[in-house]
Design a protein that fits this description.
Length: 233
């Protein structure tokens, strides 16, 4: 369909490991095997879909000004293949459900890190799945995934008093608060976004990093919408 060589098309669709796969490895190492397996299954589906979208985008870039008919035909085929991969697993391309399930896996990782004297590696892997966009994270954390899951266990978390463990438990509890904010309007959207900035702040502490390190958009949200301060809870 594209006129490109077979090997070049294969190269376009070559997947690479991302933050979700790294989190799954750390979950497995921490003994959370079922959570890791579920996360890998979600990762496989979204990787399949995203490689199709990426291939379509690359074709569009190559032929946009030379053969529009070929671009549209190939891009539509890639888009249909991506949608099919998501639909087979029960996901909709226009929903946040796959990311919501990954966020829940991050919550379980942080809950586990809160029981360990030094869970920095696990906390760092969880932190890396959050986007540097608090309002986008607000939509994700409040989505339910394909089946209901709960953040209620955050209330009963206990563990050692080390700074890493305390910060990990604060992160998990903040995620639970953000998940409970209703979808009512912009006020709630920004409320949950502010809580997600708290999440990433405390997760950075649990990971042994400077709070909001490398997250310029979240730093902007903190300054512009939260008076530059993380609430003390």
């Amino acid at each position: 369909m594209t006129g490109l060589s077979y090997t070049r098309c294969l190269k376009m669709c070559e997947p690479s490991e991302g933050s979700w796969g790294r989190l799954a490895r750390e979950l497995r190492a921490a003994g959370l095997i079922e959570v890791a397996d579920h996360l890998l299954a979600v990762d496989a589906v979204t990787t399949d879909a995203s490689t199709w979208f990426s291939a379509g985008g690359e074709i569009e870039g190559l032929f946009y000004y030379t053969d529009n008919e070929r671009v549209q035909r190939t891009y539509n085929a890639c888009s249909d293949a991506a949608d099919a991969a998501l639909n087979r697993a029960g996901f909709d391309r226009l929903s946040y459900d796959s990311d919501a399930e990954v966020y829940h896996a991050a919550f379980l990782a942080l809950s586990k890190a809160g029981t360990l004297p030094d869970g920095r590696t696990l906390a760092r892997a969880a932190l890396d799945v959050f986007a540097d966009d608090a309002t986008w994270c607000s939509d994700v954390i409040r989505s339910r995934g394909r089946a209901p899951f709960t953040y209620d266990t955050a209330a009963g978390l206990t563990g050692p008093g080390t700074p890493t463990a305390v910060a990990a438990r604060k992160t998990a509890r903040a995620m639970a608060r953000a998940a409970a904010v209703p979808f009512n309007g912009d006020e709630e959207w920004y409320d949950a976004a502010g809580i997600m900035v708290e999440v990433m702040w405390h997760a950075g502490e649990a990971a042994g990093l400077s709070p909001l390190e490398g997250r310029s958009n979240c730093q902007d949200h903190l300054r512009d919408f939260m008076d530059g301060e993380i609430p003390q809870r």
